[in-house]
Amino acid sequence: MQTLVNNGPVMLKGLFSRLTGSADEIRRPHARLDKTMHVALDHVSMSYGERKVFENLSCGFPRGRISVILGGSGSGKSTVLRLIGGLISPQTGSVIVDGQDVTGLSERGLYNVRKKLGMLFQGGALLDSYNVFENLALPLQEQSRMSRSEIAQEVHATLKAVGVEDVAELLPGQLSGGMLRRVALARAIIRKPTILLCDEPFSGLDPVSIKRIEALLMAINQKHTITLIVVSHHVPSTMRMADRVLLLLGKRAVEGRPEELRRGPDKEAAEFLNDGMEQPAGRE
Ligand SMILES: Nc1ncnc2c1ncn2[C@@H]1O[C@H](COP(=O)(O)OP(=O)(O)O)[C@@H](O)[C@H]1O
Ligand SMILES: [Mg+2]
Description:
Elements: E1 2-3, H1 23-27, E2 37-48, E3 51-62, E4 66-71, H2 77-84, E5 92-97, E6 100-101, H3 107-114, E7 117-120, H4 132-143, H5 148-161, H6 177-189, E8 195-199, H7 207-224, E9 227-231, H8 235-241, E10 244-249, E11 252-256, H9 258-263, H10 267-276
Parallel strand pairs: 4-9, 4-10, 7-8, 8-9
Antiparallel strand pairs: 1-11, 2-3, 2-5, 5-6, 10-11
Helix pairs in contact: 4-5, 5-6
The protein binds adenosine-5'-diphosphate and magnesium ion (MG).
């Protein structure tokens, strides 16, 4: 477990393990990043106008694992995902996605990085006037050279993978909350991303649906070795699924394995996780 902010210049053991390097590496500091980290923030400061969200935040999300970003409302959880997706740029620092700094990339560069990313953001992003099939076919039509029958095959296979193969002809408005979440997830993974960003995938769901979506995310992670970065403030599900937790605590952030944080010496982190274990399902 490590405190990531206000803790001196070297934040993550291993992340900057080689402090000297060739001139080329010095020009590209991310070349020194720990290769096990699929995504990393390196000394990131981020403000929206006057509102400072992070100062000097460094953290990492390991390849092929499930990381959960926890924290109170307004602590900056969604901001971390927006930074990784290149939707916003930090004032200082780097955001490394699969070895590449996405800050300051051109639209074309960002486009190439985003091909590796699946995003399940709040609000779902399904188009209400298109049925489920069309909603899933759209990203394939726009961004690949697949034939109509290949697209149809892929849409049905993906719907099957998330357990809703019979809803293709329905409109989003005709689906239950749990089904909608599955379809949104199908849309996020249909282009086979290697990194999946999920913002509060459990919010508003009943306990049974939470466990189902959780199981689905874990299956997706294992079957396709996708790096999963999930924003949540549902502690029980985090304790079940996370390999690693990034806990945003206002002025500082802490990261580590969930059990380690719960038992560890950082009282605030332990308290956050222990108190959260009492949290009823669906109250995100
Ligand atoms: N576009 C924006 N303009 C101004 N402030 C923002 C904007 N987006 C987020 N914020 C502020 O930044 C902080 C972190 O936001 P966010 O990352 O959405 O928090 P979380 O997802 O943890 O609830 C909040 O205080 C929020 O009000
Ligand atoms: Mg949020």
